[in-house]
Amino acid sequence: MEKPLSAVFITEVSSVTAPMLARWANDGHQIAAVVVPGPRAGKRFSFSTLRRRLRRRFALISHSRHATPPLIEFSPPHDWDALGRELSVLGADLLICFGYGKLIPRTALELFPKGGLNLHPALLPHYRGPHPIHRLVIDRMHEAHGGVTLHKMTSGFDEGDILAQVGFAAEDWRSAATVNRALADAMAVLAADIAPEFCRGRLAGMPQPDGAYVWARIEPGPLIVGTQSSSDHVARLCRVVGSSVPVSVLINGRPVRLAQPIRRLGPPSGEAAKCRWGLVEFDCADARVVHLAYNKLSKLLLRRQSKPRHGRWKQRSFDIRRFGAKD
């Protein structure tokens, strides 16, 4: 029997990442620690901080049959020397990262004999950067480049050798919940099945090709939609990224934020967009549609609908593309 591995994870603990942690532990490997975002100065015992801690614990308990792994809160100004001293005594084999928006110093990667691996929610080399899912949907490239890539970590953003990739299906892009489910399942498979292959010398990886690829970043401000966009595209924007990107339509020159679609009224009418009773009616390129206006109630609805309910689903199988496999 092969020796189990020990890993430090750098990621937020949520319903999306907890299945990955659970799968790693359930396969017999050890979670030495999970480094999670810490509160800012003066917020250590605030209500929002306590609520986040409770959510992490609940996510771990809901998915894992094992003891809760140690959580290390890493707060601004992010002292990597201090964190490195804490991690160096754990004796972990590798670092696995997802969703950390800053470069991890080489000195931190060198603490691990197998280095660091990152899970990126797009098919690299396309859509490197901090907001790949958002840009994929906005650019209508989600079916072409949507998925998850496991790659080696280097001193650059999303530039390391690709070990394996999982592509998403068209039906995975119906809503934030379906995207999160596909993301969670793909990350669990890549971390638990592919990372050990790399650590045991069975997978070398493939260098990323040179070229001009889209850098996935969302600029602040509303995303204006209307007659230039199809009704399906606007609906997907609202359902997948609408909770974090203000998808809006102009009414009297001012952006009004949209929530989920309600109904299709018919072909474009040529009338101006209008808002009343919490509903927004406007023309798309192919239809006159009605959406909920974004407010406190619709915000809660979007957040609730974005959570994947793993308890009702069986983990599915994926077509995994491996790169640099050795005999």
Q: Summarize this, please?
A:
The protein has helices at about 20-25, 45-65, 80-90, 105-110, 130-140, 140-145, 175-200, 230-240, 295-305; strands at about 5-10, 30-35, 70-75, 95-100, 115-120, 145-150, 160-165, 225, 245-250, 255-265, 275, 280-285, 290-295, 320. About 30% of the residues lie in helices and about 25% in strands.
Uncertain runs: none
* Counted beta strands: 14
Class computed from helices, strands and strand pairing: alpha/beta
Shape: globular
The H-and-E topology, N to C, reads as: EHEHEHEHEHHEEHEHEEEEEHE
The overall average pLDDT, rounded, is: 91
Strand content: 15-25%
Using the CA coordinates, give the radius of gyration.
21 Å
Strand order of the largest sheet: 3-2-1-4-5-6-7-14
End-to-end separation: 19 Å
Proportion of residues in helical segments: 25-40%
Number of helices: 9
How does the major sheet shape up?
8 strands, mixed
What is the topology?
Elements: E1 6-10, H1 18-26, E2 30-37, H2 47-63, E3 71-74, H3 80-88, E4 94-98, H4 106-109, E5 116-120, H5 132-138, H6 142-145, E6 147-152, E7 162-167, H7 176-199, E8 223-224, H8 231-240, E9 247-251, E10 254-266, E11 274-276, E12 279-283, E13 288-293, H9 296-305, E14 320-322
Parallel strand pairs: 1-2, 1-4, 2-3, 4-5, 8-9
Antiparallel strand pairs: 5-6, 6-7, 7-14, 9-10, 10-13, 11-12, 12-13
